[in-house]
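Subject: complex prediction, re-run

Hi both,

The earlier run crashed halfway through, so I resubmitted it with identical inputs.
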Amino acid sequence: MSSPYSVFLEVTNACNSNCMHCRSRTGKPLPNELSTDELLSLIDKIDHMGTSFVVLTGGEPLLRRDILEIVKYSCNLGLKTVLATNGFYLTHDKANLLATMENLSVQISLDGASAVIHDSFRGLDGSFERAIYALRICAEVGIDVSASVTVTWYNFEDLPKVIDLGRELRIPTIKLRRFIPNGQGFDNRSLLDLSPEEMRVLVKFYINRKEALQHEIDLQMEQAPFTIPLSTDKSSFLNDGTKRIRGGCSAGNAICVIDPVGNVRPCPSLPVNVGNVKEVDFQTIWESSYILNQLRDRSNLSGRCKVCEYRSVCGGCRAAAFSQYGNYLSEDPKCWYTEALKEKAHKCELISV
Amino acid sequence: MPIKTPGSQIIEEQHENIQKLKPFPQPNKQVLNCEQTEVIEPDHNGMTIEEFLRWGCKCTG
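This time it finished cleanly. Structure:
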């Protein structure tokens, strides 16, 4: 039996924020969102398949009245459970309750080191103050908590201050996340998107800071493969002549998403439905979806990603490709490394025509 | 648009040069042709969980 390592459950479409970068167009709950029983049954199924991680996200998951029940259920099954929230509704009482649950970590969005940037980015006054409060109380009560920063042109310069703030709050982990222009983020992409050169600067900044802060804070970049060409031991990451995927884009091969009404997608940022768990068994979708299987074979990729020497450990971002070209098998438009491969990719495509 | 770097002090108005927004991308129908019946053997060519944790994208959105 095969299974994704991590399943993202978007438990509701409801959200109190109006984020510029939102991959969805969240706001109000959808009329036919999965019920408590349906979600618990789905978590059972996911556990039975052998999945290790469940990420409870949204919308804003804390807007579901039954969210603590869902978190507890997932944790009690032994699934490593992540509650991804903006922290706005995380009270001291809820934090104390969450602190009793094993296998749980809480991830709180932090998109700037000040209310000026964070609140305007999130479209919600007071959200910075509440996020800081949530981070602080989680750390205080002993929850494994991380801050998640979506890096955009809007907050790029603020990154050092965000990291300093994390250190001040004694947050064990800060995750830097690449902005993918989908949903509302697509509408705002001209304000938010980084250029390939800025991506390179970001990766270099990340590598330097990670090393400098290694004894103080775990700085992570969720799309780690982009760091490989700048790492000292990159030779071991070259393509090994097999089709096997060794890292990089996890869409459809290590992760997938189930949205509030049961639609399955390959990754949170890729708005392509491959089935619905209300109609077809989740495992059947996971194993037999044509689209998921396309994503599991990187020889299907085109452009620079097809000819890149790091294809097996990277594969580019399929969601970024879809956002730019409407084709999730196209090259990653923001890759800073493969600029030199453009000509090679072009020749390759001419030969294959 | 100037290149930004973390910690730099570029002061240009961030909202200038707003490009005309294009509509949300539509899926390429050729790629999304779900009527195709070929099912690839689901061996997934997949990464190990250690590789996933070390080098896999865990983008949480």
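Chain A has 14 helices and ten strands.

- K.
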